[in-house]
Structure formats: structure tokens, C-alpha cells
Write a structure and sequence with these properties.
mainly beta, about 70 residues, four-stranded antiparallel β-barrel
């Protein structure tokens, strides 16, 4: 796993684990594939905000290697 707080680590098409806005209290991870990167700055202390291919939006907490399913 890499650091989800650094924008350069995140690319479109990458499989990631995000925390949705409604799950911030529990920290529940939702897995998906990055469709769009929404954070413009190079870093963010709570994770880079992305939109998944299914339309969900959240901050990246985990980055999975491409061969990990």
C-alpha cells in the first residue's frame, strides 16, 4: 500500500480504498477504481479526493497494487 495523501501516487484506473463522506466516523473502506481525481493540490492530510467508476466520491485511504484483487 502507498500513501493516499499524495496526488502523484494516484492515477486514473488504479484500484483504491476510499472513505465516503457518510463513513468518515466509522472509517469504513469502499473499494473501487479511480475514474477522476478531484483534489487539485499535490497533497492533502486526509487523503486525495477521487470519484470512482461507480460514481462514489471519497478520500483515498488505501492504494492497491494492480495485480492485487
Amino acid at each position: 500500500m502507498d500513501n493516499g495523501c499524495i496526488r502523484a501516487n494516484i492515477k486514473e484506473g488504479l484500484k483504491v480504498g476510499i472513505v465516503l463522506k457518510q463513513d468518515q466516523r466509522t472509517g469504513k473502506i469502499t473499494q473501487g477504481v479511480v475514474m477522476r481525481i478531484l483534489t487539485n493540490s499535490s497533497t492533502h492530510p486526509h487523503g486525495i479526493k477521487v470519484q470512482l467508476t461507480n460514481g462514489q466520491v471519497g478520500r483515498v485511504k488505501e492504494i492497491y497494487s494492480k495485480d492485487e484483487e
